[in-house]
């Protein structure tokens, strides 16, 4: 299960779409490359934990890594939709479902209900009005919806324990979505759709999430200062990196703080001795109505891993399929046959959606160029410190010219 090659000498569907991952302390994970030897990494595991995690020495000493079969981060989503093997689709579905239920993939309530309805269909079969579906959903609600959504309604759910009781708000939305699954999927002349069809529908819905298929890392960011003397402290975040870009997710609030395509950022990492490693993300923004560049500081012992993965993803995009999903605005014409419409699906635009960036919740450093050098301003920035970014001409990252009215600090 190391995802290298099948017995025929060429990677099979499961090997291409999946790859081994080793994980342990605090869910720290390392996705293995074909050249990696799991046994050798297992022997080196304590050294890797000391280098790339903040785990206490006592935990490192007793930790045992586990070898897991995970989705290959480098496997394009458009190729995933071409898979017909039902068992491979099931593996992808199970992993995606686990990430949704664990709120690793933050989802709006509407999307959680739609995804949960497909899980109901897979586990309970087609919706039957004669069945006591509301009671069944109520008893197994955490199998269909993320735990933090279930907890919000525990008081209401506790009041409805009888089989004939009316469904609570969370149950009702899930039940309504469950009713619609057969009509939306089972359109084959009235015949019941196969499980593979529902696995495919679940994955297609997950593809709307901009962080689907990412590798996840742990880190912390500075909180915005609150009050004159209060330093905001730090906030735990998950950094999700895929072939398309980087997302910073609030680990507690279960929503996106920042989402950037590779065309929209510049980055670097620092690992000075006696100081905490940092991943730096630089991106365009605005401050008080003025266009500026912003610099986000992510503290993490995994900064070096994250920086290397960003660089590798960009190299893969440029070398393997340069004409694939680089288009930013889909036109009215039909999509090319080599690029399915799924790659051009617009991002979710609901007001307050959990997948939308919340830059106002970030504490960033802003700079501006005054013609002689780069100086910090209140609170703006223009010129990049870093050379690591997508090649000029391919991205939308631009140098912002300073205005005369900018106040320098």
- How much of the polypeptide forms β-strand, as a percent range? 15-25%
The total of beta strands comes to 12
**Rg result:** 23 Å
Low-confidence spans: 1-10, 152-167, 184-190, 322-349, 401-409
Helix content: 25-40%
Quaternary arrangement of the chains shown? single chain
Order of helices and strands: HEEHHHEHHHHHHHHEEEEEEEHEE
Question: Could you walk me through the main structural features you see in this protein, from its secondary elements to its overall organization?
Answer:
With 409 residues, the chain is of the alpha+beta class. It has helices spanning 13-17, 38-43, 45-52, 57-62, 77-80, 86-101, 109-124, 133-139, 147-152, 154-158, 169-185, 195-206, 303-319, and strands at residues 18-23, 29-31, 66-71, 215-222, 234-241, 245-250, 255-261, 265-270, 278-287, 290-299, 365-369, 374-376. Strands 4, 5, 6, 7, 8, 9, 10, 11 and 12 form a nine-stranded antiparallel β-sheet that branches. A three-stranded antiparallel β-sheet has the order 2-1-3. α6 packs across α12 (195-206), α7 packs across α11 (169-185) and α7 (109-124) packs antiparallel against α12 (195-206). The radius of gyration is 23 Å and the shape is globular.
């Amino acid at each position: 299960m190391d995802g290298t090659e099948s017995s025929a000498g060429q990677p099979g569907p499961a090997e291409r779409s999946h790859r081994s991952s080793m994980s342990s302390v605090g869910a720290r994970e390392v996705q293995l490359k074909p050249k990696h030897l799991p046994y050798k990494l297992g022997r080196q595991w304590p050294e890797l934990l000391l280098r790339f995690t903040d785990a206490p020495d006592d935990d490192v000493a007793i930790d045992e890594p586990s070898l897991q079969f995970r989705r290959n981060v480098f496997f394009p989503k458009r190729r995933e939709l071409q898979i017909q093997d039902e068992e491979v689709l099931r593996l992808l579905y199970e992993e995606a479902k686990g990430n949704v239920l664990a709120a690793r993939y933050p989802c709006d309530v509407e999307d959680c209900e739609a995804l949960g309805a497909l899980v109901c269909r897979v586990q309970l079969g087609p919706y039957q009005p004669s069945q006591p579906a509301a009671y069944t959903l109520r008893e197994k609600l955490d199998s269909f919806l993320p735990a933090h959504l279930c907890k919000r309604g525990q008081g209401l759910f506790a009041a409805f324990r009888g089989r004939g009781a009316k469904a609570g708000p969370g149950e009702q939305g899930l039940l309504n979505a469950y009713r619609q699954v057969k009509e939306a999927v089972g359109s084959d002349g009235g015949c019941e759709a196969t499980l593979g069809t529902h696995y495919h529908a679940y994955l297609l819905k997950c593809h709307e999430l901009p962080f689907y298929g990412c590798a996840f890392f742990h880190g912390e960011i500075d909180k915005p200062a609150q009050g004159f003397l209060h330093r905001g402290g730090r906030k735990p975040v998950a950094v999700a990196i895929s072939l398309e870009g980087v997302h910073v997710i609030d680990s507690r609030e279960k929503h996106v703080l920042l989402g950037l395509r590779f065309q929209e950022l510049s980055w670097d990492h620092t690992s000075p001795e006696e100081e905490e490693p940092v991943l730096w993300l630089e991106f365009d923004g605005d401050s008080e109505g003025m266009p500026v560049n912003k610099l986000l500081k992510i503290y993490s012992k995994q900064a070096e891993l994250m920086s290397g993965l960003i660089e590798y993803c960009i190299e893969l995009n440029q070398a393997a399929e340069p004409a694939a999903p680089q288009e930013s605005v889909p036109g009215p014409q039909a999509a090319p046959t080599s690029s399915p419409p799924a790659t051009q699906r617009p991002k979710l635009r609901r007001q307050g959606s959990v997948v939308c960036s919340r830059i106002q919740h970030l504490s960033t450093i802003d700079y501006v160029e005054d013609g002689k050098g780069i100086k910090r301003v209140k609170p703006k920035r223009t010129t990049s410190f870093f050379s690591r970014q997508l090649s000029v001409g391919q991205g939308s990252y631009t140098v912002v010219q300073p205005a005369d009215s900018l106040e320098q600090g």
